[in-house]
UniProtKB/TrEMBL annotation:
It comes from Arachis hypogaea. It comes from the Eukaryota. The chain crosses the membrane at residues 460-486. The keyword Transmembrane helix applies. SMART domains: B_lectin (SM00108). Residues 27-153 form the Bulb-type lectin domain. Residues 1-22 form the signal peptide. This is Bulb-type lectin domain-containing protein. Keywords: Disulfide bond, Glycoprotein, Membrane, Signal, Transmembrane, Transmembrane helix.
Length: 565
């Protein structure tokens, strides 16, 4: 009946908040009907210790709702409600209600459920009280003191002692120390089992991550990141509580006075580094903070602090960003050049200019600079051929040349930084002027033609094999997917053929005579690697390109589990 989904919701709810009554002293409860407002008498609810508070804090010209630690001279914000757009007017009010949890009331606006308790109604659960706990966790209780919601379950940029970062959770850095809106960096667990830090707008593939930690441990599965009350930042198995690896601890704490209380927090800071801090309190008076650990050691440019088409360098110990030659800043950001985004300073798009053959390009070499991301094409050719092929290729905007390998890049160029690696040369394509040619009208390409220029037969094969490779590769993945579904009927389908070196059997029905068997073999091998059960065995995107190109040997794949009878 109708109660079944409600029961399910209730169970779900309890699962999400199964940390029941960890603190048994319920003398510091916020009763139903309590209100706070930014300018009223009560602006926040504080914890029993007085060290933490939940409520309104100034945010630019308006207010935001959050939790802070009462440090001096400034409070430390450890949680923010709705960091994607935290601003609230001075007329807002927060009210603790039985049926709707925490309600945000703003003038001339519908009430907003501050905390996602929509399902409270269906589950027929009622809030009985709330509490700002001494751990820094803000919780809503039912009448049996089961937690219905906790701020620990929905972190912003910080985890506190006693808090865990589990699979579905991520941290997003703040814009700055004074603006706790969501900023530029993300820390979360990625599909490849790593806890990874990357730019928020990237896809957070392995090549996007500037810091990563494996969280998969054989025999345990995925571990969560836990910060203990005592200040150890460790990878822990949730069910057994075993610590498998610790990143940092309070052992290095200096000046540990006997009477002091320590509050630990791990924060993904606005500069992208992930740091462990210890705040020291004597009584309720804050007496300093120490940084115990940081994730990124050494060169600050390891963190992608520069935006699109700009590169990072250090000048008098400060991180600076600069546009590549031929690019200009999209908007000038004063003297803090971090996060600079740049665009081409010539309006003509590449492909457009190729159709207009009067446009000529130069390859400008950049000293000691390189960038990251994925090239769209990797070809083993001479440097001059590499430059030439980029000049003629409308997709190509820049190349990295290293030890006989030409990596061609489209825009935008990402993760640029200065480099001391002399064996690598970077070239950026720049328009160099107008050349009038009598045959120009004949050589112009029609807009529907693909913009592919080929220098020699070898490159043609490379390009064709890559194109064919991707099509076949996705085709193969799809086919293998279908294959998995029907594995009971036909599962002795592909691996045996491959193992027997008889790939042509697989395409017997196709018009297969023109297929290069070597390439096909590579693709099938690669396909088999890409469908390995263990994600750690699967190759990275970069490896896939190199392997398809034949620049990297493809080892013989292990037989996937489903091939074993
Ligand atoms: C509970 O809190 C009250 C008020 O702060 C305190 O007096 C009491 O000792 C606490 N009890 C326990 C068991 O911690
Ligand atoms: C403000 O808080 C005090 C105690 O914390 C409470 O007695 C009082 O009713 C509150 N005022 C309002 C308007 O909620
Ligand atoms: C700090 O503690 C003292 C004494 O215990 C108390 O008078 C004072 O109000 C407290 N301050 C805060 C901010 O809680
Ligand atoms: C707050 O409310 C008052 C009167 O109710 C109004 O005059 C004022 O403009 C409001 N302020 C904001 C920021 O909405
Ligand atoms: C609270 O506890 C009582 C007795 O253990 C139980 O009957 C009731 O269902 C519980 N209520 C909730 C909302 O969990
Ligand atoms: C991410 O992309 C969105 C949408 O394009 C944009 O509004 C936002 O400013 C970007 N964030 C950063 C940090 O670049
Ligand atoms: C964090 O995980 C540990 C086990 O590793 C568990 O004991 C603890 O209750 C969890 N804390 C929260 C707030 O869920
Ligand atoms: C503690 O300090 C030592 C040396 O000062 C350092 O080698 C070690 O990495 C530090 N440990 C942590 C967890 O920061
Ligand atoms: C610790 O606190 C007690 C009581 O407040 C005080 O007598 C003692 O001197 C303090 N010790 C230190 C090392 O500060
Ligand atoms: C920018 O430069 C001006 C003047 O040179 C200086 O007053 C200001 O503090 C600088 N701002 C930053 C963020 O460095
Ligand atoms: C482009 O190259 C030509 C010939 O190499 C040279 O004359 C011209 O000055 C270059 N233009 C730019 C903008 O570098
Ligand atoms: C190229 O073609 C355009 C019209 O399509 C014509 O106006 C122009 O004169 C031609 N230029 C040359 C160099 O033939």
């Amino acid at each position: 009946m109708a109660s079944t989904p409600a029961l399910l919701l209730l169970v779900l709810l309890m699962l999400f908040a199964n940390e029941t009554t960890a603190e048994t002293n319920h003398t510091h409860l916020i009763p139903i009907g309590s209100t706070i407002s930014p300018t009223g008498k009560n602006t926040s609810w504080s914890s029993r210790s007085g060290l933490f508070a939940f409520g309104f804090y100034p945010h630019g010209n308006s207010y935001a709702v959050g939790i802070w630690l009462l440090t001096q001279p400034k409070h430390t914000i450890v949680w923010t409600y709705h960091p994607y757009s935290p601003s609230m007017s001075s007329n807002s009010t927060l009210r603790l209600t039985k049926e709707d949890g925490l309600l945000l009331l703003q003038e001339n606006e519908d009430p907003e459920f501050l905390i996602p308790l929509y399902f409270l109604h269906q589950a027929k659960v009622e809030v009985a009280s709330a509490s700002m706990l001494d751990s820094g966790n803000f919780v809503l209780y039912d009448k049996n003191f089961s937690m219905l919601w906790s701020s620990f379950g929905d972190p912003s940029d910080t985890i506190l002692g006693g808090q865990n970062l589990t699979g579905g959770m991520g941290l997003v850095s703040s814009v700055s120390q004074s603006d706790h809106s969501s900023g530029h960096f993300l820390l979360s667990r990625q599909l490849d089992e790593h806890l990874a830090a990357c730019r928020v707008n990237s896809t957070c593939e392995p090549e996007d991550a500037y810091w990563a930690k494996n969280t998969y441990f054989e025999g345990y599965g995925y571990l969560q990141l836990s910060l203990s009350i005592e200040g150890s930042l460790c990878l822990k198995d949730y069910s057994s509580g075993s610590e498998l690896e610790c990143l940092a601890s309070s052992k290095n704490l200096t000046d540990k006075s006997k009477n002091a209380t320590f509050i630990y927090r791990a924060t993904l800071d606005e500069d992208g580094d992930f740091r462990l801090y210890a705040h020291q309190f004597e009584g309720n008076t804050s007496s300093g903070v120490q940084t115990l650990w940081k994730a990124v050691e050494g060169d600050k440019c390891q963190v992608p602090l520069c935006g699109l088409n700009s590169y990072c360098f250090i000048k008098s110990d400060k991180v600076m960003c600069q546009c590549y030659p031929g690019f200009i800043p999209i908007k000038s950001g004063g003297n803090d050049t971090r996060f600079l985004d740049c665009e081409q300073n010539h309006s003509k798009d590449n492909c457009e200019s190729i159709e207009d053959p009067t446009m000529m390009y130069n390859m400008t070499s950049l000293k000691d600079i390189y960038w990251g991301g994925s090239p769209y094409l990797v070809v083993p050719i001479e440097m001059e051929t590499c430059k030439k092929s980029c000049r003629k290729d409308c997709d190509c905007r820049a190349v990295l040349y290293k030890s006989g390998i030409c990596e061609k890049y489209k825009l935008p160029l990402l993760y640029g930084r200065s480099s001391k690696d002399a064996s690598m040369t970077a070239f950026v394509k720049m328009p160099s002027g107008i050349v009038l040619s009598p045959t120009s009208n004949q050589t112009a390409l029609s807009p529907t033609k693909p913009c592919v220029f080929v220098d020699d037969k070898r490159s043609l094969i490379m390009i064709l094999s890559l194109t064919l490779g991707w099509i076949s590769f996705f085709g193969l993945v799809f086919v293998l997917y279908i294959f998995i579904i029907y594995r009971h009927q036909v599962h002795s389908w592909v691996y045996k053929c491959y193992a027997a070196g008889q790939l042509n059997k697989l395409v017997a029905d196709d018009e297969g005579e023109d297929v290069d068997w070597k390439i096909l073999e590579r693709m099938v091998k690669l396909g088999l690697w890409c469908v390995q059960d263990k994600p750690s065995l699967r190759p990275t995107m970069k490896d896939v390109i190199l392997m398809l190109e034949g620049l990297k040997d493809i080892p013989v794949p292990p037989s996937p589990a489903f091939f074993v009878e």
